[in-house]
């Protein structure tokens, strides 16, 4: 991560599986579940509106209903001028979209003048309505500037599901038994490049500047959202050492849980085999203390390295002597079935005749 982060494919970062599959299907069918909380002057038990025909906008309906109430001089029960019930703005406007699992997804709209207590009453009424409709869960997306609604939602049983830079998402399970909602990201992915020059038998190694022990390791770092594993390896190697390289294969995957460097989450550390395209080292002074081309035998023999680096060095030596096809997991791009997207598949080389074969003896 020596240079400012770059995402080679910003579209992928935004269009996640969840948004395209869950919300997308509902948008296409036009299905929607619309609820409303109590508007100013409405009854205390939280008026619940019947579902509108598809395509009808509740915001407009609510606004019309509210202005009619205002023009007839309707006031809240308390009659206090400063009370939330007397606010002329629509109180508790919530709009939900059904997902294909039977949950409701609510994105908070313009609620600038709504106070937290009024929001809580509206949300409570909405939850009642969703329960009566048999919804299994509520996903509540709260923009960061409306974070004052998090506490009222939490008091009604909502928990954090995840947060991104400008919003948080809370969930409430309404179905039978314990929640079956999937969790959010569980792993961080780190990728290193074992840049090996077959002509000289040299391997590129670095010592991290910020580590307690200065041991030889392969240059690498954290993968960015939407970035292919091989691209991370090539990018990190270049940023940390100045060496240009090309992806050849995936060599190993390490999975480690409760990793302190991953904020206590699990860590996947993947090492790729890379082919060098340049040889002059110009290493990053912020991240690396030393960087050199080392004979592969020396890396195998040294004790001044990490166990995983030592193991992969031995794997490389085996591949160098007996053929890299013995150690390589190669990559192929294939089309995804439902989404129209493509993905990368990594496995040991499959002979061409097996790729097209329909029957096996
Ligand atoms: N077994 C091995 O040989 C090693 C494996 N790894 C794996 O490599 C991956 C991460 O590689 P890195 O080179 O660490 O990532 P990286 O190359 O993306 O660098 C991370 C950067 O973030 C900085 N940083 C980290 N925490 C920070 C904090 N709290 N405040 C300010 N700056 C902070 C670091 O100083 C460094 O500059 C992980 O998957 C890890 O498990 C890392 C080191 C050794
Ligand atoms: Mg690094």
From TrEMBL:
Q: What GO annotations for molecular function exist for this entry?
A: ADP-ribose diphosphatase activity; FAD diphosphatase activity; NAD binding; NADH pyrophosphatase activity
Task: Write down a Pfam family by its short name.
Answer: NUDIX
Tell me which PROSITE patterns the record gives. NUDIX, NUDIX_BOX
Limits of the Nudix hydrolase domain: 186-318
Q: What's any one GO cellular component for it?
A: nucleus
EC class, as a word, reads hydrolase
Q: Where found, per UniProt?
A: Cytoplasm; Nucleus; Mitochondrion
* The keyword Mitochondrion belongs to this UniProt entry's keyword annotation: yes
- Keyword match Hydrolase: yes
The task this protein performs is described as: May contribute to the regulation of cell proliferation.
Subunit-structure text:
Monomer and homodimer.
Q: Which family does it belong to?
A: Belongs to the Nudix hydrolase family.
Instruction: Return the PANTHER family for the record.
Output: NUCLEOSIDE DIPHOSPHATE-LINKED MOIETY X MOTIF 6, NUDIX HYDROLASE RELATED
Name used for this protein in its record? Nucleoside diphosphate-linked moiety X motif 6
The organism is Equus caballus (Horse)
Q: What is the lineage of its organism?
A: Eukaryota, Metazoa, Chordata, Craniata, Vertebrata
Name of the encoding gene: NUDT6
């Amino acid at each position: 991560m020596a240079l400012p982060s770059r995402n080679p494919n910003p579209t992928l970062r935004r269009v996640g599986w969840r948004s395209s599959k869950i919300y997308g299907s509902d948008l296409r069918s036009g299905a929607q579940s619309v609820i409303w909380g109590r508007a100013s002057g409405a009854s205390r038990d939280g008026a619940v509106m019947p579902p509108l025909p598809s395509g009808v906008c509740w915001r407009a309906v609510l606004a019309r209903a509210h202005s009619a109430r205002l023009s007839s001089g309707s006031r809240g029960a308390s009659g206090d001028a400063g009370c939330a019930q007397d606010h002329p703005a629509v109180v508790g406007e919530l709009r939900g979209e059904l997902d294909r699992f039977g949950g409701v997804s609510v994105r908070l709209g313009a609620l600038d003048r709504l106070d937290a207590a009024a929001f809580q009453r509206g949300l409570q009424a909405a939850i009642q309505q969703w329960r009566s409709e048999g919804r299994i869960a509520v996903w509540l997306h709260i923009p960061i500037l409306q974070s004052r609604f998090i506490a009222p939602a939490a008091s009604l049983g909502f928990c954090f599901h995840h947060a991104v830079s400008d919003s948080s998402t809370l969930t409430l399970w309404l179905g039978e038994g314990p929640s079956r909602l999937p969790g959010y990201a569980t792993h961080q992915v780190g990728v290193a490049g074992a840049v090996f020059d077959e002509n000289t038998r040299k391997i590129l190694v670095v010592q991290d500047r910020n580590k307690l022990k200065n041991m030889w390791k392969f240059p690498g770092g954290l993968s960015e959202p939407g970035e292919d594993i091989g691209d991370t390896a090539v990018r990190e190697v270049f940023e940390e050492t100045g060496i240009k390289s090309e992806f050849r294969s995936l060599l190993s995957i390490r999975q480690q849980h409760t990793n302190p460097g991953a904020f206590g989450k699990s860590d996947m550390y993947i090492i790729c085999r890379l082919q060098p395209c340049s040889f002059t080292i110009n290493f990053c002074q912020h991240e690396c203390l030393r960087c050199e081309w080392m004979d592969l035998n020396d890396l195998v023999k040294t004790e001044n390295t990490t166990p995983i680096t030592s193991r992969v060095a031995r794997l490389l030596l085996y591949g160098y002597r007996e053929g890299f096809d013995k150690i390589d997991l190669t990559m192929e791009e294939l089309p995804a079935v439902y989404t129209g997207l493509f993905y990368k598949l990594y496995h040991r080389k499959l002979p061409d005749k097996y790729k097209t074969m329909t029957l096996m003896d």
